[in-house]
Amino acid sequence: MPIRSSRGAVLALVIVSALVLIVLGIGLLFLVMQLGGGQELQHATDAGNLNVAKQVLRRPGTALLSGDEINHFGDSDDPATNEVNLLTYNRLAAQAFLVSANAQALGTAPGSTHAQQMLALVKEVADRLNSQLTSPGNFDQHFHNVATNHAMRMLEASNNAVQHLGTQHETSLMARGAASNAYINANQILSGGPNLNSLTVDGPNGRKYLVGYQQLAAAGAESLWAVPVRPGQPPHLVSDRNFQQLKPRGPIPGFVPPNAFRSAGLAVDQKASGMQTRALSNSIVGSLDQIFGASIPRGVIIVDNTGSLSGTQVNGAFDIWQDKLMDPNYVEVMGNPNSGLIADQSAGNSPTLKDVKNYVQNNYSALSSGDTAAQNTLASMIQNAGVDSFGGYPSNPSQLASDQGFIDFVNGAGVTNCSNGSPDHSVQPTTMASNGGNPCDLDKFLNLYGQGQGGNNGTTPVNNLMAVERFHMDICQERSSGAECATITASATNTGLKRYSTNDCGLTSVTEGTLQQLLQQTNATSIVPQLQTYMRQMKPEASAAEMNNVLGSIVPFNQVSYIYVDPNSNNLVLSSTPPSWNLPDISNPSLNLPDGNQTNYTRAANPFRLDGITNCDGECGYPHPWDCPLDSQAVGQDTTQWTPSSGFRNILGVIKFRNEANGGGQFCCPC
Q1: Is the dihedral of CA 579, 583, 587, 593 positive or negative?
Q2: Cis peptide before 351 (omega within 30 of 0)
Q3: Where are any strands of DSSP class E within 550-623?
Q4: Max CA distance (Å), the chain
Q5: Residues in a beta bridge with 643
């Protein structure tokens, strides 16, 4: 081959080789750029997906509907969004769990029905939230806010924003059996409620958290589930293998919200291939420090202390019953009070008319024969017997002592002691002063001594009385009328309850009682542990001092009070001011609220007699209003009616305090 031809062949080979190398270099460059661009897209997609897992705790969410949803959960939605979201959903689940646990402990049909309704209510909210979390369009903004901030130099980032490929949005239910962000304490569960060991897992701060993606409760066709949002941990990426493995729900119902999300990022290679490039990323949520105690934040215990009576307070006045006729004083009557002799023996005269009669009977012959000594003795006895009325006879004792007609009258006449009762206030008095009767004639005595038979030193209308207080006032009011006998019947109306002693004559130390005092008065302190459990359901971290403050609060008489958490102070209170949220009308029988069984606690095993409270010494200014209880007497009783409830519609129980007085009868012998 000629030399020139050989050189030409070599040059051509060099040129071809160079072109090949250039093509290979360019191809390698494009490959590197493609790989680098894919890596940049993956980083951007991961960042966008992590932001999805972070932001999805709060958005999207679902607003509570008016009615039962608002009334139950109005304080459990997210104040930042006014919606229920993944961050707050477990608060609803925890509240429903407490209602279900209470219903289990109460063991009543209405409680079970209400538990089922409560679970259905949470299910409806969860289903709406689940729909929002599976809707791809709700995540575009979360993804774009972060993904577009990542550089895409290899794919011409300046004009090549990462797109969120919503059609490939997927969800999974991961970390099954891990902690929700709702913790619960064993002292929040009533006796007879579920065991928490299998329903909780350990979590941050040594607390027990309701387990996620495990059935917590069931009632009828309804079931309750919490979502594991891993308190104390941040959101993080997860492998596609694990994501896909837990994507099928298995036993988890379709309404339960997911906690893991797939995002797909899409970009176009504008520098090299011009083709679309896709990247996938999976992540799971983490709630970090966002935790909540299981509670019924709008829970209320109603304290019903209503019912009162009105009466008249009497201030006793001095009258003939207290003066002439009050034992040991008495009025003596010899013969007929209008024609015979009457003597007031309140001064302890000696001799008495009975002594005069005995002397005449023993010395009748001497007196009738005109024996001067016998007649002088009789005259002296008549003079000292304190005779206030001589009837149809002259008032000269010497003249009477020598009058055979008078001597015969005394010899044959009876002598009666007229009194209002016996000195020890027994039911067997001496002869009563019967108005118009013979020989005791109350009208004659009133005219003779010029004293009233009744009256008072003033009366005062009084309201807000217990039943036993009203009976006490009726005793005194009837006594002031001056009648010898009165029929007094206690009102059977049940009223509210105050603090008083059954040994307090005249009820001089009646006061409004604290909740603890009224429970003690009715032997109902055994319900205090149950009340404390309910208070912890209202406020999980309630201290012993805070609960004791409620127990030590006054229960206003004739009012309805409420135990609840005051949203302004966040303290448990017992207040006559109702809470700001709506309460159901528990008087409506169709609501079956409260839904537990009522238990009655009483002051005494049997109704106690009111003798130690009414008709006793010194009452209302009288020595003793009536000496002679002749018929059946009044009895009283104090009662606490306690009806626990499941917490459905926020009612955790009703306490009713009742005082009653019944019976009574005829009272005589005023004094």
Answers
A1: negative
A2: yes
A3: 560-566, 571-575, 599-602, 608-609
A4: 209
A5: 654
In angstroms, the CA 290 to CA 288 distance is: 6
d(CA 177, CA 313): 70
- Residue 423 CA to residue 438 CA, distance in Å, equals 23
End-to-end CA distance of the chain: 163
Instruction: State how far Cα 424 lies from the chain centre.
Output: 47
Rounded Cα distance, 367 and 216, in Å = 110
Pairing of strands 635-644, 651-662: antiparallel
Residues of the chain with pLDDT under 50: 157
Q: Helix 140-147 and helix 3-55: axis angle, to 10°?
A: 130
Q: Phi, psi (5° rounding) for residue 583?
A: -115, 145
Q: Residue 557 corresponds to which amino acid?
A: F
Sign, CA torsion 611/615/618/619 = positive
Q: What is the pLDDT of residue 152?
A: 62
The torsion angle over the Cα atoms of residues 155, 157, 162 and 163, rounded to 10 degrees, is: -90
**Tokens encoding 628:** 């002679």
Specify the DSSP element, H or E, that contains 121: helix 109-133
Render pLDDT for 629-667 as a digit per residue (tens, 0 to 9): 777 689 999 999 999 999 999 999 999 999 999 999 888
Contacts of 241 (CB under 8 A, 6+ apart): none
Compute the distance between CA of residue 255 and CA of residue 132 in angstroms, rounded to an integer: 11
Q: Please name the residues in contact with 249: beta carbons below 8 A apart, sequence gap of 6 or more.
A: 173, 256
pTM: 0.87
